[in-house]
Amino acid sequence: MSKQIEISPGVAPAIILVEPQLAENIGMTARAMANFGLSELRLVNPKNGWPKKGVREAASGATHVLDAARIFDSVPEAIADLHYVLATTARERGQMKRVLAPEAAMTEVARREGQGVGVMFGRERVGLTNDEVSLADAIVTFPVSADFPSLNLAQGVLLMGYEWRRATGRAALPFTGELLSPPATRQAMLSLFASLEEGLAAAGFYPPEKREIIARNMRDMLHRMAMTEQDVRTFRGALRALSRHAAAPSND
Amino acid sequence: MSKQIEISPGVAPAIILVEPQLAENIGMTARAMANFGLSELRLVNPKNGWPKKGVREAASGATHVLDAARIFDSVPEAIADLHYVLATTARERGQMKRVLAPEAAMTEVARREGQGVGVMFGRERVGLTNDEVSLADAIVTFPVSADFPSLNLAQGVLLMGYEWRRATGRAALPFTGELLSPPATRQAMLSLFASLEEGLAAAGFYPPEKREIIARNMRDMLHRMAMTEQDVRTFRGALRALSRHAAAPSND
């Protein structure tokens, strides 16, 4: 199902893949972009042609990104109309260049809202050339484990999209915890403490010299629950049922 | 190549996949975990058996995670020894439950360092059941675009690993910008301004009434460069070469 997603030019960063090879990576890149509201994909000289067999399947529904993808012959052409370009790279390049973490990079991008921004990703095996890196304003690298630094292309794209969303205040959660009932008043809590403690005392629960300590610890347990009015009603109901049942064991 | 990675129990969260189906997703999950220093994978009742054909290839070298994976028959068994469990879900579940963004969730996890923590991911198509969600301490959901909310399993794992690393102070970049030369002193900068401005004046660059304004703007350009000592030397050298060349055009 093809979706029409409207993103104003210059709002979200363009994702630029330089000589990408695997259909799976490009498709998953499109999906990762769509997940975080990016839609502008630029492909520089895709290896072995374009479009690629299997890329639409790998996009898992994000085919609108693929359909709108623009193809360029070189990096200079792909970045010409942009105002700020980041180059992702795993290895130090011996260039005097600012190196940013994804979060910091997207803070920079957020400051440039309204400008054309691009994030370049290199070839699956060898990444970007030093020359291509030098065409970018700054380097982005990912805080990966030194034991296993090789990050899949689409995974890198996902992280940049995620951090863009966070940096530009778009990272609202799809839903938040429903407060199905308001918090219990302190009166309701104190009343519950009393009922609970009376019930436990009647049941012979407290060792004689430990009643105060145990009661206070149980009050803390109930405080930690952050009980709602409904929670208190449920808890009281359970207490009553247990007490009634204990009072009339022949009702089993 | 199999790596031996030492992570102390209770240090990094366990990733728990509930009835995962696709070898590709499990393999890519292992890779995503390795990228961010997670190594404990728990599989609950993998669909169509374990191990799966193709999973090692999809792990792209992170086979140590697969080899150490533990298989469980049910969620209760998989989480029994843990102290704090998060359930990832894309949809609201009608439960009174705290819903956390990945960053907030990993802040909670960071507070529990030394405790056993698990992050549960559900089946590719239907996610976790409401019952399974109720066994977790809290829900995590991702700040995806409402237009395209379906996040690939391994991508969700990657985001959790990334945020864990950030929350626990482990997100150092593999390299930072090399300061190949110290910043230029103000004397070097002022001297450069003077040379540049004298050279441009001699070349008749400035319109008469605009020299001050243009000169000040160019000083700002040079300030924005944040020039190092080496930058100044390079720039001076370029200026001299241009001036010499201009002085002796017959040398072309």
From TrEMBL, chains A, B:
Keywords: Cytoplasm, Methyltransferase, S-adenosyl-L-methionine, Transferase, tRNA processing. Signal peptide: none annotated. Its main location: cytoplasm. Its EC number is 2.1.1.200. GO terms for molecular function: RNA binding; tRNA (cytidine(32)/uridine(32)-2'-O)-methyltransferase activity. It is found in: Cytoplasm. It is an enzyme of class 2 (transferase). GO terms for biological process: tRNA nucleoside ribose methylation. Belongs to the class IV-like SAM-binding methyltransferase superfamily. RNA methyltransferase TrmH family. PANTHER family: TRNA/RRNA METHYLTRANSFERASE, TRNA_RRNA METHYLTRANSFERASE SPOU TYPE DOMAIN-CONTAINING PROTEIN. This is tRNA (cytidine/uridine-2'-O-)-methyltransferase TrmJ. It comes from Methylobacterium planeticum. The lineage of its organism: Bacteria, Pseudomonadati, Pseudomonadota, Alphaproteobacteria, Hyphomicrobiales. The gene is trmJ.
